[in-house]
Amino acid sequence: xxxxxxxxxxxxxxxxxxxxxxxISHRVLMLGALAAGETSVxxxxxxxxxxxxxQALMSLGVSITPPNQQNNVWRIRGMGGKNLGTPKAPLxxxxxxxxxxxxMGLIAGYPVSAVLTGDASLSLRPMGRVIKPLAQMGARFETxxxxxxxxxxxxxxxxxxxxYRLPVASAQVKSALLLAGLHTRGKIIIIEPQPTRDHTExxxxxxxxxxxxxxxxxxxxxxxxxxxxxxxxxxVHVPADPSAAAxxxxxxxxxxxxxxxxxxxxxNPLRTGLYDTLIEMGADISFENRRESSxxxxxxxxxxxxxxxxxxxxxxxxxxxxDEFPILAIAAAFAAGETMMSNLAELRVKESDRxxxxxxxxxxxxxxxxxxxxxxxVTGGNGKVRGGCTVATQLDHRIAMSFLxxxxxxxxxxxxxxxxxxxxxxxxFAALLNGLGARIGV
Length: 442
Ligand code: S3P
Description:
This protein has 442 residues and is of the alpha+beta class. It has helices at 22-34, 48-59, 97-108, 128-137, 171-181, 199-206, 242-254, 273-280, 325-334, 354-364, 397-409, 429-436; strands at 4-7, 13-15, 38-42, 63-65, 73-77, 91-92, 113-117, 140-143, 151-154, 163-165, 188-192, 211-215, 221-225, 236-237, 259-266, 284-293, 296-304, 336-341, 368-371, 376-381, 387-391, 412-416, 439-441.
């Protein structure tokens, strides 16, 4: 395990290009793999999680060509109506929950058996939430680890259409069902208790699928898609990841004399809850040049250092910032007053128990924090946080990056025990921040 240490910085400045959105990158590989024709992709995230999805698809017989030296275009030769092949070896999905859950939905519609495995973190994460509805549709699963990886599954060419209400708001489960739904005999209806990131729906529409979403008066969302739909390849551009940009945004806010610009960031409203919250806290963040790109909205973001104040995060906003609570907790530690976060049960089953990991890290850095079963309260230091600690990252990239960001503005350096997992989502994180003026090193 290699750690990293982040030392106080005298402001971060400049324009920084952030890698492509992780959620869209997984989806474009998977939907491109099923479409008829060749999907060319620019801006694809190159990270370990995305490589797990690409390798798994190649093991299932899909041809994926990385960029050559002349261009930055990935090419996916889609299967069209052809069957996927049975992989010769287990599909290793590393740390990536999105790879595991979405691939289960994708494989469910083919006459293929596959074993899915993951690292120590992924092998602890609940898979029953995808197994249950996919089994109702007709896929078969064998697990010896209590609905956790490793899992052997066998798909079917004759899946039943379902009308399924998701017990938890989860874009991964919804997307798994939509991928399987491309092969059902009739219409599939999915009801999500609250709207979650809708990149799968948008990409499906872009590739020609007939799919609708209807927001209900009670806040739930009904998605309806016809079964047995062909997809047609189209060029896709992947914009910068707002969940990765979040770390640089908070770094600029909490580090005095900072001013950064981040171009071409995905600003889908189902992903920008953190930015809404930071603006309520008093953050100086502006969105310029809003435009459409491959069925998504993007904008250029400018962030300047700001004095923040604590807020209460509306519980209904949680799905739109589900991955951003570790970095929000860092912003909250520097704010004046208390920040209250609730409706966080899902944080317990992410790459780590994020509620526990956040609380342990903040406590080690001298920040007052209280956790409930599903909630977190952080008492900010009004610009002052002691730091001077080593944080246990629990194989969780977002915990690792969040506490390195804290080190930029804390009074004493902040170290993390293991920086290797950062490569799952944002391999250039430390280099990009150092290019702006941070001091992150071994
Ligand atoms: C993701 C959905 C979210 C999120 C994850 C990526 C996706 O997970 O936490 O990082 O790409 O669909 P859940 O669906 O489990 O909430």
